[in-house]
Design goal:
Blueprint (H helix, E strand, L loop, with lengths): L2 H11 L2 E5 L9 H12 L5 E5 L4 H10 L7 E4 L2 E4 L1 H10 L1 H9 L1
Parallel strand pairs: 1-2
Antiparallel strand pairs: 1-3, 3-4
Length: about 100
Amino acid sequence: MDTKQRIHEIVTSHPVVLYMKGTPQFPQCGFSSNAVQLLKASGAKSLQTVNVLEDADIRQGIKEYANWPTIPQLYINGEFVGGSDIMKEMYQSGELQKLLEQGA
């Protein structure tokens, strides 16, 4: 299975997937830490995280998969939502909470 297929399998097999640097318990960058905090504050229950620092192919492949240059990246119900800044804006408007309530 190639990298793109592996990524697709993960984002479509879990309701909420966050590609991040580190783990929720030990994030390795401020943006990843903020993303986890926003998801927790928004009530995300079934959060699947992928530590991109453990796999160089995934780290590069996720940027190509969504055509998005930065990490973290959030996927809800198989759809790319955005990175840390977009998550923050969505949280402040209440949009992130609604999206998580609908299907995640």
